[in-house]
Amino acid sequence: MLRLLAPLALIWAAPAAAQKIEAVDRVWAGHEVPFALVVTADRIYVGYYDAARQLGVASRPRGSSWWTYTKLPSWVGWDSHNRIAMAVDAAGQLHVAANMHNDPLVYFRTSVPGDVRTLARTPTMVDAAAERSMTYPAFLKDAGGRLIFKYRDGGSGRGREIYNMLYRGGWKRLTDAPLVDGEGKSSAYFVGPVLGPDGWFHAIWVWRDTPDAATNHDLSYARSRDLAHWERSDGTALPLPIRFGDAEVVDPVPVRGGMINNNTVPGFDSAGRVVIAFHKYDAAGNTQMFVARREAKSWRVVQASDWKGFRWDFGGMGSLDFRLRVGTPVMDGKTLRVPVVRDGKPIDLLLDGETLARVGERPGVTLADRLASRIAVPAGMQLNIVEDASGVAIAWATLPPNRDLPREDVPEAQTLRLILPD
Predict the structure, then answer these.
(1) Is 6:84 a contact under the CB 8 Å cutoff?
(2) Which residues contact 216 (CB under 8 A, 6 or more apart)?
(3) Are strands 345-352 and 358-363 parallel, antiparallel or unpaired?
(4) Do 46 and 59 meet the contact criterion of CB atoms below 8 Å apart?
(5) Distance, CA of 369 to CA of 348 (rounded, Å)
């Protein structure tokens, strides 16, 4: 399954299992910023910002607790957008991209497989002119195992989504044109693409007109077999770059309609059909969860929650402290389960997997909940989790986002921990 190789913190938990916990390093805790975890057949790699805010990478063999460390010449400020992305290519070389929010390329790669001490900076990947204002770096792998790197070129409200491909040891454009172009009027904020059981890559995004988070609108969709040729769900070809006027709109949520980027998450039902979990305001002005599913001839949108008196009225610039976080919709027997965290409380929303009729909701359990008795989290901080599909995870405590603004005090560094299934 294609997945982002540096996933953001998962907000739901697998079935309970024993875990082994070990320390990796002391890390920056002044604000939430996504770290990276890569697990291969023989090694574990962790990317993080250390206690001095410097970009660090640690690696160890699986089955050993002997870590190798390296520090790279990049330091994070107060911006929660400055995520770390990492991946290992088919030749075993590690790639690291980090610390970019409308910034020039910050990218390193090893020259000896498995040896993080050989990470060296590469100043240009493909096109220096298009690598001067980069945000949201992410590594992907396509169905053939090729390493893909994607990023936004340009600022919020005026960005283009660009894909590069690793080819014969160097990088080249996957497509001549960007995947999406906001034409200087908007940006597309993506979740995915992910590879479904139907063999298609599914990309979900919202359009955003300005840096103000309230200007997200129009939940959109495209699919591809190879990440180079794209189409609508009815098979109509989409020429690149996809522009707003050509995009397939799943739900025309208006500006200030209660939908936000990152919380538009795809999953699949028992028949392999794509379903998208997202939120918007209902007719009464409450924030509600919704699920959209592509059926025979069109998208069907149903309300998944029935909350009274809950409204997340977000807006403004900078990284927000999300009151509502959305996880991947998954089939649980005959039930479609949509995991969310609302005001710090995990909830499973339950729908009939066939009809999408609302069944109800129940308390959920996150990995952070299961670790609470073993990892102390200082008052006012949160426990961040990144988990690999293998069950390996990393956990560290930080203060929440602060709209990318400096705080009056610098908190004590916290311990970054590796979580291993026992």
Answers:
(1) yes
(2) 189, 206, 207, 208, 253, 255, 257, 259, 260, 261
(3) antiparallel
(4) yes
(5) 14
pTM over 0.90: yes
One-letter amino acid at 220 equals S
Beta carbons within 8 Å of 100's beta carbon, 6+ residues apart: 82, 106, 134, 135, 137, 151
Kind and range of the H or E run holding 107 = strand 107-109
Q: How crowded is residue 281: how many other Cβ atoms within 10 Å of its Cβ?
A: 18
Which residues make Cβ contacts (< 8 Å) with residue 62, sequence separation at least 6?
39, 41, 42, 43, 44
Over residues 71-92, the pLDDT tens digits come to 999 999 999 999 999 999 999 9
Please provide residue 371's backbone torsions phi and psi, each rounded to the nearest 5 degrees: -90, -5
The answer to whether the beta carbons of residues 294 and 346 sit under 8 Å apart is no
Cα separation, 130 vs 67, whole angstroms? 36
Q: The tokens of 127 are what?
A: 């096109």
**Token digits for 296?**
């025979």
Cβ contacts of 98 within 8 Å, gap of 6 or more: 36, 47, 55, 74, 82, 83, 84, 85, 106, 137
Tokens of 283: 């007719």
**Which pLDDT score, from 0 to 100, does residue 157 have?**
74
Which secondary structure element, helix H or strand E, spans residue 420, and what is its range?
Answer: strand 414-421
Structure tokens at 154: 């340009």
Cα–Cα distance, 306 to 207 (Å, whole number): 26
Residue 157 class from Cβ within 10 Å (0-12 exposed, 13-18 middle, 19+ buried)?
middle
Per-residue DSSP letters for 154-174? S-TTS-EEEEEEEETTEEEES
Who's near 64: CB < 8 A, 6+ residues apart?
A: none
pLDDT digits (tens, 9 = 90+) for 325-357: 999 999 999 999 999 999 999 999 999 999 999
DSSP result, 177-246: S-SEE-TTT-EEEEEEEEE-TTS-EEEEEEEESSSSGGGEEEEEEEEESSSSSEE-TTS-EEPSSB-TTT
Identify the weakest region by mean pLDDT among 14-23, 109-118, 368-377: 14-23
